[in-house]
Amino acid sequence: SFLPERSNLAGVRHILLVLSGKGGVGKSTISTQLALSLRHSGKKVGILDVDLCGPSIPRMFRVQDSDVHQCDSGWVPVFVDQDKSISLMSIGFLLEKPDDAVVWRGPKKNALIKQFVTDVAWGDLDFLIVDTPPGTSDEHISTVEALRPYKPLGAILVTTPQAVSVGDVRRELTFCKKTGLRVLGIVENMSGFVCPHCSECTNIFSTGGGEELARHAGVPFLGSVPLDPQLSQSLEEGRDFIQEFPKSSAFPALTHIAQQILDGTLQRSS
Amino acid sequence: SSSSRDEALRDKRARILSRGLPKQKPIEGVKQVVVFASGKGGVGKSTTAVNIALALAANDSTKEVGLLDADIYGPSIPKMMSLKGNPELTPKNLMRPLKNYGIACMSMGFLVEETAPVVWRGLMVMSAVEKLLRQVDWGQLDYLVIDMPPGTGDVQLSVSQNIPIAGAVIISTPQDVALLDARKGAEMFRKVHVPVLGLVQNMSVFQCPKCKHETHIFGADGVRHLAKTLELDILGDIPLHVNIRETCDSGQPVVISQPQSNA
């Protein structure tokens, strides 16, 4: 297939999609934490937020009031800080007011997603993480089709342990198979809550569903991330959880997931 | 006279714009339609919709309640209501809803295999939603509870343009990103002229079963502040409780199986 000379994705080494099928399992959370962990390993990361109805990424980095500027090659992504090591693109930056609702039917969404994939001047990136909305609809079909010529590394599927989530993620696995998207692994999020007072662990959303699904489907299990109020709080305040809370309960699982992604890319290049 | 000219112009514009949109027509036999929406995924729309539908029936045994799962991509109702199987067809070629606990249910989940994803673009989704609304033999219902999918797109537009809706309940968790989407959800209903009955704060607080210490895992009271800003009522505050999830997973929603619990 034809790739334009100076494609905006030419400088991007690896493209990763974060999918789920189920809403509210933590796709955006995992996308941001993965980006932060990779940044701490010295990588340059971009996040493309194709959730047009509920763009959460800008808020998680506290840059929701930033504007997007144009350059010769297209849109300039929003940098999270002076380092310029993490850059973002989301419809959240294009809305007049952050509370504006995007109530669009499919064809309009598809057009914007195509633009988001080809017209953002990312420059040189080690990783581009694509955060998606829940489901298997227009946004997903368009995103996978638009990314196909750029050969994405694969997809990470996020689930919570409970049965209704696992059911949706099973469907998402089939979606990946049908569209030829490699599944890098499954992450089980919100897996258990440890009471800060007495250390009793309660499995509010059940446990083990994600791991079992991974085993059943023959895909790698990347890890279980527990419910961590400090993580939720960091996201609300746009803080760097990986830097500021290394002793928190979700830290080991999140950094382990990032490490497996890094190891996987090393394997593939050798 | 310039204001009456403006009004005439506005009316003409509205008439021209509404050509081509589906005509809003109530479903025969259904008295009132209440939708449960959120904007954000995973805040507990299906869980709340199922339990409220059951509560409506439990509170007044003379009322007939129906439950429509409009989440085409991720139908959760079959699992929560312990229902499975393809719907039968009536002599008039309408689908017969599946019943459990006295509630008539219809879901995409009954029409496709459990593991099959529904990878459809918007147009097909529109026609599927129409079928789930109109090609079902609902009978005489006092309430039809509709569980919406997350987002503010095709399904929400199709449902609100197709049938008159008595009101929408918006569900959110206390965290920022959920509230942001809940606000968009409320805005969407305003755009399509559906009255918002109020907000429900879900997953508000967790009480450790061992030491009773309370933790606000997803933040505290965010929904109350949003309700005040949007001038809406808080219809309820639901805590995080293992029982809610356990009973949904096993298909015996907490309202039926543990009516005396906190939830």
From TrEMBL, chain A:
Pfam families: ParA. Gene3D superfamilies: P-loop containing nucleotide triphosphate hydrolases. GO terms for biological process: iron-sulfur cluster assembly. SUPFAM superfamilies: P-loop containing nucleoside triphosphate hydrolases. Keywords: 4Fe-4S, ATP-binding, Cytoplasm, Iron, Iron-sulfur, Metal-binding, Nucleotide-binding. The keyword Transport does not apply. InterPro entries: Mrp-like_CS, Mrp/NBP35_ATP-bd, NUBP2/Cfd1_eukaryotes, P-loop_NTPase, YlxH/NBP35. Coiled coil: none annotated. It comes from the Eukaryota. The keyword Metal-binding applies. It is found in: Cytoplasm, Cytoskeleton, Cilium axoneme; Cytoplasm, Cytoskeleton, Microtubule organizing center, Centrosome, Centriole. Its main location: cytoplasm. One of its GO terms (molecular function) is metal ion binding. GO terms for cellular component: axoneme; centriole; cytosol; nucleus. PANTHER family: CYTOSOLIC FE-S CLUSTER ASSEMBLY FACTOR NUBP2, NUCLEOTIDE-BINDING PROTEIN NBP35 YEAST -RELATED. HAMAP family: Mrp_NBP35, NUBP2. Heterotetramer of 2 NUBP1 and 2 NUBP2 chains. Interacts with KIFC1. Interacts with NUBP1. Component of the cytosolic iron-sulfur (Fe/S) protein assembly (CIA) machinery. Required for maturation of extramitochondrial Fe-S proteins. The NUBP1-NUBP2 heterotetramer forms a Fe-S scaffold complex, mediating the de novo assembly of an Fe-S cluster and its transfer to target apoproteins. Negatively regulates cilium formation and structure. This is NUBP2 factor. It comes from Pelecanoides urinatrix (Common diving petrel).
UniProtKB/TrEMBL annotation, chain B:
The keyword Ligase does not apply. Pfam families: ParA. One of its GO terms (cellular component) is mitochondrial matrix. One of its GO terms (molecular function) is metal ion binding. The keyword Iron applies. Its cofactor is [4Fe-4S] cluster. Keywords: 4Fe-4S, ATP-binding, Iron, Iron-sulfur, Metal-binding, Mitochondrion, Nucleotide-binding, Transit peptide. GO terms for biological process: iron-sulfur cluster assembly; mitochondrial respiratory chain complex I assembly. It is found in: Mitochondrion. Gene3D superfamilies: P-loop containing nucleotide triphosphate hydrolases. Belongs to the Mrp/NBP35 ATP-binding proteins family. Iron-sulfur cluster transfer protein involved in the assembly of the mitochondrial membrane respiratory chain NADH dehydrogenase (Complex I). May deliver one or more Fe-S clusters to complex I subunits. HAMAP family: Mrp_NBP35. This is Iron-sulfur cluster transfer protein NUBPL.
